[in-house]
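Q: Give me the 3D complex with 5-O-phosphono-beta-D-ribofuranosylamine.
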Amino acid sequence: MTRRPTAILISGRGSNMEALLQAAAAPDYPARIVAVLANRPGAPGLARAAAFGIPAETIDHRGFADRTGFEAALEARLLAHGADLVCLAGFMRLLTAAFVARWRDRLINIHPSLLPAFPGLDTHARALAAGVRFAGCSVHLVRAEMDSGPILGQAAVPVLPEDDAATLGARVLAAEHRLYPRALALYAAGRARAEGERIVFAPDIAFESGALLSPAAE
Ligand code: GRF
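A: Here is the predicted complex, encoded as structure tokens.
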């Protein structure tokens, strides 16, 4: 089995990065993490990556005159590490359409909502304000428009009456940590692949067919 060389881009804490690193520590995981790159010096995830023995580097976006210059430096490091796939994990810089086009179908993101609902920031407060009964997270291929692109996987969690943004966010984050490694594995192994703007799945992949009710059935 060839393990697809994959880089992870972070800006902060890196808990999703850590979930990916843990999964990729298994010898039969179809992606091999070759580097973690952060755009913010001192991003806590860098130390966590180094503890896994993964090359962890900072490319400070403030050192560049514009996005294109920053992305050229980023891309040079991605190529130097031999990355073929790139996972965004709490990476808080918008990428230009040109960068996204060069990495088309090789750039993956996780977003803390059930897309296409609630793209952008403050998803949990917005979900609570909208009164939805389910929230969740999405792993998707990146397209030029923010938080859009073919959806590889989603996890739904119920919104409970006593939730605030913090409790809902924690429930979603736990789901993110389960979903992202699974979605990357399917994609890296070629068992989920892009056909235009939709994902086609291998026939042996398991899907849930029951309903999760919120409120629950009596
Ligand atoms: C996650 O909620 C992710 O979905 C969003 O940013 C957050 C990053 O958290 N894009 P972490 O750095 O992975 O802990």
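A quick observation: Residues 10, 12-17, 89-90, 110-112, 137, 173, 176 surround 5-O-phosphono-beta-D-ribofuranosylamine (CB under 6 Å).
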